[in-house]
Amino acid sequence: MSISKTKSGSYRVRKKYPKDIVSILKLSSASYDKIFSTRKEAKQAEVDFEIKVASVRENKEKIFNKSLGDLLFKDFFESEYWSDYKDGLTSSHPTAPTPATIRNTEDIFRLHLLPMFGKYSLDYLNEHKQFVVKQMNKKAKEYANFKSVRSYFIQVMDLAEEYDYIDYNRLTKPLRKIKSSKKNQLKKLKKEEEKYLCERELLLWFDAVEKDYVDGLLNIQEYTLFWTTFFLSDRKSESYALQWKHVDLNENRIYLSQALDRYANVKATKGNKKSVMMIPAPLKRILLDWKKYQKKELFQFGIKQKGDQFLFTYTNRKGEINQRLHTDYLNRRMQVIQNRHPELTNCTPHKLRHTSATLAKMKGMSLEKISEGLTHSEIATTKIYVNDNSVIELTPASFAYDEIMSTAAK
């Protein structure tokens, strides 16, 4: 048994590298000796040890006669780092990364780190700090999420140090000094841009949406999605995740209990809240029309509209029908509307949420009611914009809509 429990309650893994692996990697010692907090981590380390041995044997032609530091950044990423990362061994976080996080990280390496550093050896990168800093500084000026790029690069080099591929990581300190230029620039622009539409600007958006729908430039699903997201004052991911079983048109209620992540997987709502929203009369009419229309559309493809059918779906580039919406679906539709109407002020689904909260406050809705309508945990969160299962009788958007339309009719 290679795992033993220490007096302190941790778990020690002791193994020996086979002679051929010691020779290929030119290890100074055949011993593998590490301590882990839990037995689960120790068992995983055992598995990883065997995987590493198999990987080295499989790729021995690439690395034979090379010193460890001569290994390319790309090869080290593939043979060592990536499996350790997916198992949660490259950070101090208590749990392994989720599938969504793994995909995000894979994109950062594929789009940024591997193109920049993949063809360079670990030794070269570690010994040429100015080169690495120059490349990273350039990336910081181009890419808003630079901190993630930097963090993962440092993780790779730290692991290379831990596994004795390099003597120590010389890059951490100079890389920490690089400023997130692009992100700071975007923050500044965001502060300068209004966070919500004024009453006149919102009315122009209403007019544009209605006009495009009447003119056939906006289909019934896009029209319904816009008004659903507005009237519920919810997050777009919560509108995307609505299924017909969540919509009670007889009792005029919508149950917000889930959301979609950026890969269209169902997840819990923010803060794991489950809210019941009253459906305002204008939205009910729209939803009734959409339900009838969608039922006919689905029937043409031999699909029955059941309770678990999502309200909003699309056909992807592969021609696959009835797929859950991708994260930018509503943003892109709103951008197209804005492109057709130069009089419109820039707006996003999240800005709609800010707008409904702000205008509702201006029209006299209490901060407590706005907080409830936005399903915030604390009023302090609501103040930035301007639970339980209790029924939310009036969302900030419904309140603001009624007040605006009442004023406009006078």
From TrEMBL:
One function term, GO molecular function aspect: DNA binding
Keywords linked to the UniProt accession: DNA recombination, DNA-binding
Entry coiled-coil feature ranges: none
Taxonomic superkingdom: Bacteria
Keyword Glycoprotein: no
Protein's GO biological process: DNA integration; DNA recombination
Domain Tyr recombinase: 192-399
PROSITE patterns given in the database record: TYR_RECOMBINASE
Family: Belongs to the 'phage' integrase family.
Protein name (record): Tyr recombinase domain-containing protein
Organism listed in the record: Enterococcus avium ATCC 14025
